[in-house]
Amino acid sequence: MSSSTTHRRRGDTRQRIQDVALELFVEQGYEKTSLREIAERLDVTKAALYYHFKTKEDILVSVFNDLTRPIDELIAWARQQPPTLETKREVLRRYSESMGAGASLFRFMQENQATMRDLSIGETMKDWMFQLVELLRTQDGPLTDQVRCVSALFTLHAGMMYLQHVEGDPEETRLAALEVATDLITQAHQAA
């Protein structure tokens, strides 16, 4: 067996552990899920699970880091761009896509806010929100336009977190929230 094959299989196992753990965290809640249950669902020994992750927190942090890497990249990219309406629209579009790709994680975070506050992940999310708000906000505009810019960000969250039970395709819901968020940003910039 080649080294790359071994690495790929380990990566697949790590991914399976993350997927199953997140599935259980969403179904039962983080606190009520044990490493034993994760191992049982995977049909592996607890020792095999420990080879990849020592704690539930290790699993959750790894899922968070993997699924949210595009947000870090987005913030870094946006800081290098001029603060134009087009840049802000692109920030919203990319952020919406990142949320869509990590939908199960974002739902877990919404439903387990107490756990999130206790883990380092909660602070990271809070920091992102402040950074994204600063990237979207109209610096010198009237307060109502600044509120529109901030509301655009939270409209995306509403589409992901609160409208998940609306009848229809989740992708259509995400795109509808993105359209409303883009309208808010556009309206704020037209007034400026």
Can you walk through the features of this model?
By secondary structure, the protein is mainly alpha-helical. It has 2 domains: 1-54, Homeodomain-like (Arc Repressor Mutant, subunit A); 56-191, Tetracycline Repressor, domain 2 (Orthogonal Bundle), CATH 1.10.357. The protein is built from 10 helices and no strands. Helix 4 (56-79) runs parallel beside helix 8 (120-136). It is elongated. The relative contact order is 0.10.
- The CATH topology name of the largest domain reads Tetracycline Repressor, domain 2
Mean of pLDDT:
86
Which CATH architecture of the largest domain is right?
Orthogonal Bundle
Strand content bin: under 5%
Number of strands: 0
Low-pLDDT stretches:
1-10
Shape: elongated
Helix content: over 70%
Order of helices and strands: HHHHHHHHHH
What is the number of helical segments per DSSP (H or I, 4+ residues)? 10
The class by helix and strand makeup works out as mainly alpha
Give the biggest sheet. none
Distance between the termini: 62 Å
| Oligomerization status of the protein chains | single chain
Rounded radius of gyration (Å): 19 Å
List keywords for this structure.
single chain, 192 residues, mainly alpha, Arc Repressor Mutant, subunit A, Tetracycline Repressor, domain 2, 2 domains, disordered N terminus
